[in-house]
Design goal:
heterotrimer, A alpha/beta (360), B alpha/beta (311), C alpha/beta (297), A: 360 residues, alpha/beta, Rossmann fold, 3 domains, four-stranded parallel beta sheet, 14 helices, C: 297 residues, 2 domains, 10 strands, 50% helix, globular
Chain lengths: 360, 311, 297
């Protein structure tokens, strides 16, 4: 039987993941459908009620992929209970009478390389470690370039003169990246697109700058935050966001120490998953005089519930506007928009008031 | 001719409107149920306001707020469209300039707004679900077969409110049935429900917020004397409930429309315009966006809901 | 010096050890009373709305200890890789230090980084103003005493498996099972119905962890491993299992669901949220016992 691989949808990372798989295993990689309301409905129907939201989203995607013919599922995993999703998801999908191989990459925040290689060899007996390493290197750089350019897009997308110029160019870039032949061709593409993005005409200066911090899946997957970033951009806000694949895979280990140091007046330990990172980031945003902090997570995300209490305290001390979202599968987009609008009004009123006080 | 300004607040349960003069005096006001048809409700509302308005006024601005603010904003060609948090704060400040805390429990939303020196400094809206909102109270009233209008008065009669778990609607309902089955009096159960709504609200929305007086309580649920009583009891502070409290969102919008005034003159003839919305699922990609197209006098004026920005 | 000890969360793993340890050092302690409405209200007021019930109760207990010089709050990260604890065990110290003005007596267990319990206790010498030798002696003596009582308790628990009548295994974390307001009313009503209640935390820990592999190979939460291991150890002798968890417990939400799917035994899944009312939990227990009895006849 032909092997057809599927994995969960997170941001735009389906492009580099597909690229990597295509080159290292002789198996088909499914075109992963976007997360739609149906995906979420499917995922929620077969998940336990009080499990955190990413479980429901990724389960929904898996069911859709299995229906489309996938028979190898790759789950990403993580440092909190995300690392344990796989065993229950496997059982739920088995009970739904699907047949598949299931690979989990990260457990307890760690990756067992040997085990993963063994699993890949099962899919493709001719799997070569050397070839795997070469394409892993290219993919790593692809992710880095994507994240770097995304940072620029995020900060400027609210000010494009011509509507959709950023998103259209991004799509073009991702498609071009997928056709990369080798490392140098990737680097050329990156330079070309970086330049093109810098040349997109902007109409005005940002009204405010806000920073987004929070739980990784909800931060990185637009459907999980109901496209919060685009909503904020539409109000003329420049956005800084910390969590992306580059951070989680290559920088976290080093940076978390920096954040712990920054947060030493508030916390002594890493509080689990990204809680300490987010507390440190919150202080950084306050010190750098951003106009607002937005803390987002999926409902019942334990590490971020604890962090939230301390983030509130920090924002109160620095008199920093704070907006918190706890997204669920049935959050209403209208409600999200209302809260964002009010947040913008609040920042504006505060600024006006500061000006008045200053004049007096 | 004297100038006047219209504010409309279209919520999920009720639609409210006021017309004010330049000095924020109310010239006309009305309140009616939305019944899931915001367009019809607003048409009816404006007809009623028009009848109340003296002849020597000219309309110089319209503002809309509430969950259907954008839709109705298009229909009436509003000069300003704002979210209900800002609208409520502005409206309340006009009547209580020194207010420091606004508690609001509406049909499906509840919010808390903290103000200092007439500026919003913090706010929050309910996160979990509809537990503790007006819609929840109405459904529980129905379950106990008590008219919602009598709910508050009955709650006041209780001396020992029953404890009800009201954090989640599902838990609350099963608990309510359970308590009724055990033979507690209706008064005590209702009082318990009112009290649990207050505790729940403060635990969910009030956490970490500096609740200081003067406190104004608004929204549909502020008409419930039981809930007011327990807010007073738990916060140990006086609670102001304005007879026009439900109009504060509309009031705020009228004031904001006044601030945005231009040369433009508005009219109130909406009764005969054709304003329709057509919903459809777009099948051009896997997003399956639900697109809403809006037609004013058969002309497409806007389309919403697309995730990929095709439309 | 008076050390405040919250009767909640860690207390149900380490209370015995702590009390003996401080007693051996002649240091005065104050333990909070069993959870009551006042403690629950205090906790609800301080906790984040989405925190689990057990955390809310824990914060309520800490608040109750206003007058103590120190409050004892450990931090437990892991007992080696593959033996992790719930995220709350990693963060309670920092959460509490941001809420309460009291000084906190804290030690850290992180075996992955070679921070053992023993090393943690030794570090307390500065705060307690005792010598290393004194601490060592008090700790080792307390450990010895605790081991004897624990063995005795396990023995009694396992003895119940051979008694007559209906036997139900209560699978829960000890801070829920033995809490005055969470587990106690449930246990009392089971005992009133003449059910032998067997506790999931009173089995040989290591044996339980090994047995747990039969249900879940890759589980890395220590306490959940021991819980489900207890099911495998008693499987043949029990009539049913009651899962008791506090809403919305992270590890339980995944692990209990998995076990219920795999297990071929009558189960009742109780998730407790708001304690201001029992929401028909009694009714569910009674009907569960009725079903088990009918099955036995």
């Amino acid at each position: 039987m032909n092997k057809i691989i599927a994995f969960p949808q997170v941001g735009d990372y389906a492009y580099p993941i597909t690229y990597l798989l295509k080159h290292i295993v002789r198996a088909e990689t499914l075109y992963i459908p976007h997360i739609s309301s149906e995906t979420i409905e499917l995922g929620s129907r077969y998940s336990p009620d009080f499990v955190c939201t990413p479980f429901k989203y990724t389960l929904g995607t898996f069911i859709e992929c299995l229906e489309l013919g996938a028979n190898v599922l790759i789950q990403l995993g993580g440092g909190c209970r995300y690392g344990y999703y796989h065993e229950l998801q496997k059982e739920i999908l088995k009970n739904l009478n699907y047949h598949f191989t299931y690979i989990n990459l990260v457990t307890e925040g760690k990756t067992d390389i040997k085990k993963i290689i063994k699993q890949f060899k099962k899919i493709d007996p001719k799997f070569s470690i050397l070839k795997g390493l070469y394409y892993l290197f290219i993919t790593k750089n692809m992710v880095k370039y994507m994240d770097e350019i995304d940072e620029y897009i995020r900060y400027n997308i609210g000010f494009e003169q011509e509507k959709n110029s950023f998103l259209n160019l991004k799509k073009e870039m991702l498609n071009s990246f997928s056709k990369t032949k080798g490392y140098f061709s990737l680097k050329r593409k990156y330079r070309y697109y970086k330049n093109k993005f810098k040349n997109i005409k902007l109409k005005n200066e940002p009204r405010f700058q806000v920073g987004i911090i929070g739980e990784l899946y909800t931060v990185m997957e637009p459907s999980a935050n109901y496209e919060l970033e685009l909503e904020l951009a539409s109000h003329g806000i420049a956005i800084k966001r910390y969590t992306n694949a580059t951070y989680l895979l290559f920088e976290k280990k080093k940076k978390v120490k920096k954040y712990l140091k920054k947060a030493k007046d508030y916390i002594k330990y890493k509080m689990g998953a990204d809680a300490a990172d987010n507390i440190g980031r919150c202080i950084e945003l306050c010190e750098e005089k951003f106009d607002g902090v937005i803390h987002i997570k999926s409902s019942f995300c334990t590490p971020e519930i604890g962090a939230s209490l301390i983030i509130k305290k920090i924002c109160q001390k620095y008199d920093m506007p704070l907006l918190e979202f706890s997204f669920d599968t049935n959050t209403s987009k209208v409600g999200m928009k209302t809260r964002c609008e009010a947040f913008v009004d609040m920042i504006e009123m505060r600024k006006e008031n500061e000006k008045v006080l200053f004049r007096n | 001719m004297k100038k006047c300004y219209l504010g409309i607040d279209i919520g999920s349960i009720s639609t409210k409107g006021v017309i004010i003069d330049y000095n924020n005096n109310i010239l006309a006001k009305d309140y009616l149920e939305t019944n899931g048809e915001p367009i019809q409700a607003v048409k009816k509302l404006i007809k009623s306001l028009k009848e109340q308005l003296p002849d020597d006024y000219v309309l110089k601005g319209i503002g809309t707020t509430g969950s259907a603010r954008k839709l109705i904003g298009l229909m009436v060609d509003a000069s300003i469209v704002k979210n209900e948090i800002t609208a409520h704060a502005i409206g309340t400040l006009a009547i209580h300039p020194d207010v420091k805390t606004i508690l609001e429990i509406g049909g499906q939303d509840s919010k808390i707004i903290i103000l200092r020196n007439g500026i919003i400094v913090d706010y929050s809206m309910n996160t979990l679900c509809a537990a503790g909102t007006g819609a929840f109270l109405s459904s529980q009233a129905k379950r106990l077969s008590i008219p919602i209008e009598e709910f508050g008065n009955m709650a006041l009669k209780s001396k020992t409110p029953v404890k009800i778990a009201a954090r989640c609607t599902v838990f609350a309902e099963s608990d309510l049935i359970h308590k009724a089955g055990l033979g507690y009096s209706k008064e005590d159960i209702i009082a318990g429900l009112c009290k649990s709504i207050v505790l729940n609200y403060l635990n969910n929305l009030g956490k970490g917020k500096k609740i200081e007086g003067p406190i104004v309580f608004q929204g549909g649920v502020s008409k419930n004397k039981g809930v007011v009583k327990y807010f007073k009891e738990v916060l140990k502070m006086p609670i102001i409930v304005d007879p026009n409290g439900h109009l504060m969102g509309a009031m705020g919008m009228a004031i904001l429309a006044k601030q945005k005034e231009t040369d433009k003159v508005y009219n109130l003839n909406f009764h005969d315009i054709s304003f329709v919305t057509k919903g459809e699922e777009c099948n051009r990609c896997s997003n399956h966006c639900e697109i809403l197209r809006i037609y004013k006098d058969d002309e497409l004026v806007d389309a919403w809901g697309s995730k990929c920005h095709r439309v | 010096m008076k050390i405040g000890i919250p009767r909640s969360l860690y207390f149900y793993y380490y209370g015995d050890l702590w009390l003996r340890f401080f007693d051996n050092l002649n240091i005065e302690t104050k333990v909070t009373p069993p959870t009551n409405q006042e403690i629950l209200d205090l906790g609800n007021k301080l906790a984040q709305d989405e925190m689990c019930l057990s955390m809310k109760i824990y914060l309520g207990h800490i608040a109750y200890l206003k007058d103590c010089d120190y409050i004892l709050i450990p931090r437990i990260d892991n007992f080696g890789s593959n033996n992790q604890t719930c995220t709350n065990f990693l963060s309670t110290y920092d959460i509490a230090s941001n809420i309460f003005p009291n000084k906190i007596l804290n030690y850290n267990i992180d075996l992955e980084k070679k921070q053992s319990e023993y090393k943690g206790f030794l570090k307390l010498k500065k705060d307690l103003n005792k010598s290393k030798k004194e601490i060592k002696k008090a700790y080792l003596k307390a450990k010895e005493q605790v081991a004897i009582t624990k063995k005795q308790k396990i023995k009694e628990n396992i003895k119940k498996l051979n008694k007559d009548g209906l036997k139900i295994l209560l699978v829960s974390h000890p801070y829920n099972s033995y809490d005055e307001m969470i587990g106690k009313p449930i246990i009392e009503s089971l005992e009133k119905l003449n059910v032998q209640v067997i506790y999931s935390d009173l089995f040989d820990e290591e044996k339980a962890r090994i047995e747990s592999k039969k249900l879940s190979k890759e589980l890395y939460f220590k306490y959940n491993k021991e819980n489900i291991g207890s099911i495998m150890l008693s499987l043949k002798k029990i009539d049913g299992v009651i899962f008791l968890s506090s809403f919305p417990c992270g590890p339980d939400s995944l692990v209990n669901e998995l076990v219920i799917r795999k297990l071929n035994l009558p189960t009742l899944n109780l998730i407790v949220d708001d304690l201001s009312s029992d929401s028909g939990i009694q009714t569910r227990i009674e009907s569960f016992v009725d079903i088990l009895e009918a099955k036995n006849e």
